[in-house]
Specification:
Length: 235
């Protein structure tokens, strides 16, 4: 099997060149997830539940098969990939990339006991360290709000390159509220830019050539969050 990860050191901790908002997001998550206080423990607990909450809808939306190669952008504690790999009986390695050293450090814990394999890398969505056409499924779970429109276009174009024929992009993000105060609470201090409406998201996906866009329901169990979720095919 050809290694999907470019063996050139890109995506490793040393080689990251980040935009200002990415640096803010990285610092935000490193401080939050790496801390020792109650808020940090609460944050780790919330993200540790992602596998339980989201892996089922992800597997269903992606029509995930054991032979699929999967990559998650902004993989956090890696729980969605870990749970999905286990539930589906995966035959392929899965990859997760994230800006946050603390997220990746924690995601890597206990990796040797997991089969077939999971790889977590510190890397940016804007400089993904993978070869062309090496994944069947790419996931973006609550990451779209960190990207400006030009950055999201760039990421969607790169994902298209990374997907093999028949590949699927799965994404979900918080839905904006008409009442701006709630949106500001969701976005505050984390380097995130904006919450997009369904027409905005759909138009960005279509503009980049994604087709067969299918919305699906995915529920975040903590109010006031509500999601928009899409499955899309590349090419
Ligand atoms: C809200 S968390 C979601 C984590 C995980 N996807 C989940 O649903 O549990 C967003 C994650 O995206 C990462 N992130 C934000 N912008 C990113 C970027 N440009 N490249 C890579 N990771 C990014 C953050 O560091 C953070 O870990």
């Amino acid at each position: 099997m050809e290694r999907p990860h470019k063996p050139d050191g890109s995506g490793s901790a040393g080689g990251l060149r980040l935009s200002e908002s990415e640096a803010t997001a990285q610092a935000f998550y490193d401080r939050w997830i790496g801390g020792t206080g109650l808020r940090s423990r609460l944050g780790r607990t919330v993200f540790s539940l992602s596998g339980t909450v989201y892996s089922g809808p992800f597997i269903q939306a992606a029509a995930l098969r054991p032979e699929d190669r999967v990559m998650e952008i902004g993989s956090g504690l890696g729980e969605i990939l870990t749970a999905s790999q286990r539930r589906i009986g995966a035959e392929q390695p899965y990859f997760g990339i994230d800006l946050s050293y603390q997220m990746v450090r924690r995601a890597r814990r206990g990796l040797e006991s997991r089969r077939p394999s999971l790889h977590f890398l510190v890397a940016s969505a804007l400089q993904m360290p993978f070869r062309r056409q090496c994944f069947d499924v790419v996931l973006l779970s609550h990451v779209v709000k960190y990207l400006t429109d030009p950055q999201l276009r760039q990421v969607l174009a790169q994902v298209k390159e990374l997907l093999r024929p028949g590949g699927r992009l799965i994404l979900w993000e918080f839905r904006p509220y008409a009442w701006g105060a709630i949106n500001r609470i969701i976005l505050r201090g984390s380097g995130s830019h904006k919450l997009r409406s369904a027409p905005e998201l759909v138009s960005l996906l279509q503009e980049q050539g994604y087709r067969n866009l299918q919305p699906f329901r995915i529920h975040t169990p903590w109010p006031p969050f509500r999601n928009l979720a899409y499955r899309a095919q590349a090419g």
